[in-house]
Specification:
The protein is mainly alpha-helical. The protein contains six helices and five strands. α3 links the parallel β3 and β4. The N and C termini lie far apart (44 Å).
């Protein structure tokens, strides 16, 4: 997870994932580590679990490089989830709640996995970590979606068609 945890919905999502899902992810995908990167990372995350919560970092690239899946376990909030676009643009598969993907054009099963219960979310994360074909499909699907729907070069060409006709 990468996001400012001074925003209560982000902090809630990180806590929820760490407490309710990470233990099951660890059972299904031993060796998995949860990176909770961002300003004001919660200090009350469960002890004894593989969690790295460095807080704010100047450059998150080293965390992206080590990430096999990006989680968006949001239960509240609003707006478009730019964090999903960022993960897709880096080829990192995404598992999100329905609310976490709100405002994003996505195709569940092709470019993202959507799960709203702790059990389903943990299963989805573990599947991405253990199934190379699923990982590859989501990675490629996310890249396709972000390039087709959110890359300014693609989006602005549609504007050119509109303005040329006026």
């Amino acid at each position: 997870f990468l996001g400012g945890m001074h925003w209560p919905p982000n902090a809630d999502g990180v806590r929820w994932f760490a407490r309710e899902m990470l233990p099951e992810v660890g059972r299904r995908a031993p060796g998995a580590t949860f990176f909770a990167v961002g300003r004001d990372a919660p200090t009350d995350l469960p002890a004894g679990l593989p969690i790295v919560a460095p807080g704010y970092v100047d450059d998150a690239q080293s965390y992206w490089d080590r990430s096999r899946v990006f989680v968006v376990p949001l239960r509240a909030g609003g707006g478009m989830r730019v964090k999903i676009l960022d993960a897709w643009s880096r080829g990192v598969p995404v598992v999100s709640t329905t609310l976490g993907a709100e405002g994003i054009v996505c195709r569940p099963g092709e470019d993202i996995l959507i799960a709203d219960t702790p059990q389903a979310f943990a299963e989805a994360v573990a599947a991405v970590l253990s199934d190379a074909a699923l990982h590859e499909r989501l990675s490629r699907g996310g890249l396709r979606t972000v390039r087709a729907k959110y890359d300014w070069r693609t989006v602005y060409s549609a504007w050119d068609e509109i303005y040329e006709s006026t």
